[in-house]
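INTERNAL TRANSFER SHEET
From: sequence group
To: structure group
Subject: Thiamine-phosphate pyrophosphorylase

Please process the attached sequence and return the structure record in the designated field. Keep the field labels unchanged so the import script can parse them.
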Amino acid sequence: MVTPGGLVVLTDRRSAAGSLVEVVQQAVRGGAAWVILRERDLRYAERAALARELRSVVPPAHLIVSGPDPLGGSAVHLAGADSLPSGVALVGRSWHGTEDLSGVDYVTVSPVYPTSSKPGYGPALGVTGAADMRAPVPWLALGGVDTPERAAECGAGGASGIAVMGAVMRSPDPERTARELSEAFLTERVR
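Return from structure group:
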């Protein structure tokens, strides 16, 4: 089973510095290996159409849909309370140390650092705190990973990847931001 790793970009059309599809395309050119489509407030048809558009700019089978419906794909990322869907090849879950991980292939652990995307969400775990949770599956560091230094710390701390939203979505140059974060993470990643 291939699980997300490296730079994983989460979408946020409201904060994107341009067209969401263009921002994601630039991030992929910069090194984003995976993309998680959030946008759960969109109507089903709009969200499904957005998923199709994003699949045209994301590496094959590397678009993960937030929620239990993969919207024609094969990967989902679940909130703690979401039910496990059947027939989905890749399942991730937001994990805070208590959620059931049966049938889950990877988790996001958050917030690793204070985050401007969710002010007041925390307290921040830090990389050591996130690693000390001892996720039984590969884990992605989420929350406030907005500088190359923080990306490198996550790599050195044992994360399989970094999940980034605001730093890439709000960047005036998503390709450069993605490249800087991806390279910093991969350079320090514990193998």
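Handover comment: The chain has one domain: 6-188. The two ends are 18 Å apart (CA to CA).
Transfer complete.
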